[in-house]
Design a protein that fits this description.
By secondary structure, the protein is α+β, with helices and mostly antiparallel strands. It folds into three domains: 106 residues, Alpha Horseshoe (Serine Threonine Protein Phosphatase 5, Tetratricopeptide repeat), CATH 1.25.40; 169 residues, no CATH class; 73 residues, OB fold (Dihydrolipoamide Acetyltransferase, E2P), CATH 2.40.50. Helices cover 42% and strands 20% of the residues. The chain is built from eleven helices and ten strands. Strands 2-3-1-4-5 form a five-stranded antiparallel beta sheet, with helices on both faces. It has a five-stranded mixed barrel with strand order 6-7-8-10-9. A hairpin with a 2-residue loop joins strand 4 and strand 5. Helix 3 runs parallel beside helix 5, helix 6 packs across helix 8 and helix 6 packs antiparallel against helix 10. The protein is globular.
Length: 384
């Protein structure tokens, strides 16, 4: 009979093979290997079910089995394994990881479109975290993400149609009429809403004449969800392959950062679409501070010149200028006595959607110091 150690080793080999198959685009093979890995790891964990003294090995095996169950979308199995692990005496650090894993299980349930019929041009967004209570939710946590998702939809539609990046004003009337967004009422019991990408029966834009309403709506929705998945995976090379235009790329990442969890009030943001009989779910867990237009993962190399100094400054945004063709400029006035003025250069793709909405707010700017001013990498409302 195999020991727990032997079963665990076999499970890890299968999981590694599953990840390799997934990277190669072999989805069905990857799913089968993950299932086999889960069965082996669950068996290994159950060998220590009554060994409460075998810590941290016992809780590590249960955590690993639950993680694989979550990967296989076996939510009830994952929940049961986590509960069994917490019922023992896991070390505090592992216990915290188990609770975080349980939160992921519950959030996956929120991503289910329980009893809701969704057409191809529709997708559900769900939010979870401390800001979301049983009956009330922090309005900023939800409303701002809805607004940002709308911007993301319009920008993606424009990019797919080959329209040059628009750094001023709102989306063209034809875009808004061909890609109208509707929002469903909130779902009872969770902060989940459905977006519907509709068509007001206006003449279709060039490039859409041969597509049905469902076709063009589906293409835009799928593109948004797939790109958000790449941001969540920190797969920068694949995202750049999908979004070749540097301005659109920078804009998408900046907007995705605003949608992403802050790690405190919002822990997860999820999207669900239905294709045929299959639900596709993306659960954003990568927090905002790990995402910048320079890179979408914490492991990215710093793309700055040796002489460039990365600085963060705070002040009130009192001036925004985008009269120049390549870059805009903003100025921050600090609260110091006497006040200090900082000149900040805004790259293309960030002025209209990211910077301008913060006009007259107190913000924190992070960027590289140059002779002309600070080259903006990130801007956010200042909390203090």
């Amino acid at each position: 009979m195999s020991t727990a150690r032997e079963l665990h080793t076999r499970a890890m080999d299968l999981a590694e093979a599953a990840h390799a198959a997934f990277r190669e685009g072999l989805g069905e093979k990857a799913e089968q290997l993950f299932e086999e890995a889960f069965e082996k790891e669950q068996e290994a964990a159950l060998r220590l079910a009554d060994r409460l003294d075998a810590e941290p090995t016992r809780s590590v095996l249960y955590r690993s089995a639950a993680t694989l169950a979550l990967h296989c979308n076996r939510l009830r199995d994952a929940e049961r394994l986590i509960a069994a692990a917490l019922a023992g005496e896991p070390p505090s650090a592992i216990a915290e990881e188990l609770r975080d894993l349980l939160e992921q299980v519950y959030f996956k349930r929120h991503l289910d479109v329980r009893g809701v019929t969704m057409a191809p041009g529709e997708f559900q967004m769900s939010i979870a975290g401390k800001a979301i209570g049983a009956e009330w939710a922090l309005s900023d946590a939800f409303v701002e993400r809805v607004k940002t998702t709308e911007k993301l939809i319009y920008r993606t539609a424009e990019r797919i149609l080959g329209i040059a990046f628009r750094d001023r004003g709102s989306a063209d009337k034809a875009i808004r009429e061909n890609f109208t967004l509707f929002l469903s009422p909130l779902r009872p019991g969770s902060l989940s809403v459905t977006f519907k990408l509709g068509h007001q029966k206006q003449p279709l834009l060039p490039g859409l004449e041969n597509l049905s309403d469902d076709d063009y709506a589906t293409e835009v929705v799928d593109e948004v969800v797939e790109c958000l998945q790449l941001v969540n995976e920190a797969n920068e090379s694949a995202l750049r392959e999908k979004i070749e235009d540097e301005t659109y790329y920078r804009n998408f990442v900046a907007l995705a950062k605003q949608i992403a969890p802050d790690g405190e009030d919002v822990r997860q943001v999820g999207f669900t679409v239905i294709r045929g009989n299959t639900e596709k779910r993306v659960a954003l867990r990568r927090v905002q501070e790990e995402i910048t237009p320079l890179g979408i993962g914490p492991s990215r190399p710093a793309p700055v010149a040796k002489r460039s100094e990365v600085v963060t400054v705070k002040g009130r945004l009192l001036f925004a200028d985008h009269r120049k063709t390549e870059k805009g400029r903003i100025e921050l006035v600090s609260t110091e006595d006497p006040p200090k003025t900082y000149k900040v250069i805004v790259p293309e793709g960030m002025m209209s959607d990211i910077v301008r909405p913060l006009w007259e707010d107190t913000v924190a700017v992070t960027g590289r110091r140059t002779r002309r001013g600070i080259m903006l990498d990130d801007i956010r409302p200042a909390n203090d």
